[in-house]
Fold these 3 entries.
Entry 1:
Amino acid sequence: MYPQTHFLFPFFIGLVLSKLNVLSWELALLAGIIGVLVDLDHYVEHILHAKMNQFSLRATWNNSIKLHRFYQRSFIHFEKGALLVTGVLVALAFFSWQVSLALAFGYYSHLLLDYPSMKKERRIHLRIGHLYIREPYMEIALDVLLMVGVLLLVL
Ligand SMILES: [Zn+2]
């Protein structure tokens, strides 16, 4: 999934919980930011494996979206990472269960959203400057629904 979806989904859930006085809006925002930051491993993997443009965010993006020269997901996207993160979140929950919950929404929603294989879904194909965009229409529809939900919750 694309970064905006990884942000919007946990942010929306966090906002719903803030309406129920479970989380603050700041922690809802943190959940959304964590949802995006999980994919920083793509950049680290790019630095480790790329033959050229090692530190280029654009090359990292295009490899992830279109070129697929090497796999960019690290252990953090799989079982070992989930076990490690779960341990950290459980330990953190003893200090602040609300911060732990916000981080958990960001992290686990990221894994959940990355799981569905949408390789056969119809996609929009764009090229903005040197960046490739190949987002499935279903993901765009989900983004629109989440944005409407977020707007309804904040207005
Ligand atoms: Zn991911």
Note: The longest strand covers residues 123-128.
Entry 2:
Amino acid sequence: MTDTAEDYNCPDCGSPLIPFEDGSCAGSKCTTCDWAVATTNHNTPAFDKTLYTVWPESPTLDRSHLIAKLAVALALKTREAMELVDSGSPIAQSMEAWKVIQLSNTLSLKGISIRVEPTFPWPLAMPNHPDK
Ligand SMILES: [Zn+2]
């Protein structure tokens, strides 16, 4: 994985900058101090009118864990989560890009990855896998 954000440093304190996006604003902010620059950026998920379909995908989780975590993350009954997983059904359809990102963030906190079609052009949160 490359991280181009590390090519840039804060002009005030020299700390690494991280990219951020907030609706139609996008920019960079300092990881240490308050320095930030933002511009209206039309090249953001907020302007992506493609509708996506999302499936849960967690090769590192076994079925029962995936069902349990999905149920918690999506506020589903266990039986509903089980049906989703066992049928291979998408957890979301006709979803806008920014909502896919929100969903990805929510699920990644539970260790669940997602598969998105068509190909998703925006960065998605990656689940934190506990070290083995
Ligand atoms: Zn700084």
Note: Residues 10, 12-13, 15, 30, 32-33, 35 surround zinc ion (CB under 6 Å).
Entry 3:
Amino acid sequence: MKKTLARAMCAAAVAVLPLQMTGQAQQEVAATIRSGPPPFPTPEQYSSSARAQEHIAEAMRMAGTDLVAEATAFCTPTGPQRPALAAQQAGLEPAPERQLEPIRMFENLYYVGFSDVGAWVIATSDGIILFDALNSADEARDVLVPGLQKVDLDPAQIKYLIIGHGHNDHTGGGKYIQDTYGPTVIMGGPDWDTHLASTRADRPPMKRGLDASDGQTITVGDTTVTLMLTPGHTPGTIAMLLPVKHNGETHTALIMSGSQMRDRPSLVAFEHVFNDFAKVQNAGTMLGGHADILMNKLPQMEALGKQYPTGDHPLLFAPEKFSRYMDIMAECGRSRLAALEDAGII
Ligand SMILES: [Zn+2]
């Protein structure tokens, strides 16, 4: 249980570091990035901020009748949290972590790992793009690699390892994958710096690969993914847009590695990702490496694992609905920032 609680924290120290972003956003973020984990308003600060309440009302208006549950989950003092962390904060024992069978989320996208955290595996015509690497070398060797083999993918064909952010539950297996298969490893620049500064003997760091940049595209075979910078959960957190195939059609998925908008520049970065990338590519789903925070709820994932759908995909929204989903997420981010500002915290 200790192990699960430690993972649930997912809160390595975040240093004050420069960011790699383009244009105005880069300057704004670099000028204001703060150290430490992102602050959240207390429930009292949240409910007593008139501006926060206006943003919540706007989010609920945008939710209409079909996104009420999503808006309700997003517009809270913390935003949606990992169930393990929420249980811990409520003084409860989190549900024990379970290893899952690899889940075919889309025809070319698999989730491999645990009920609490997993890695994304994108199968292309010429190898694999891996997003995240579980908690440790042991898990990379004993869970991730056998998981790839179970779905008939060859781990020797991992061409890229992309790390969503530098916390150990995403980087832990990275060195094993890098040393064993030699993929190009990409992570946000500030998170590389933090990762390489670690002195823990039980967590030997990867060798520095490439720094992710905003709008960077990676092509392997028939598949091109786009990386984007979403500083907030950590300064180097990134997101990825990728084509996902279902029933003969290609859609666009947005994988997020953190959904916290810790300050105004962070909000600007998220708005940029939603408006200038995801909406332009007609994205239809938002997935996270931890189940239950975004659209990939654990029960739906396990249902997908049992039976891949022959009809409509349960995790795909029409672009109009998904566009509102992102707008609601940003509006709820504004509500927390307003509460933090009104309380004098940021
Ligand atoms: Zn984290």
Note: The two ends are 35 Å apart (CA to CA).
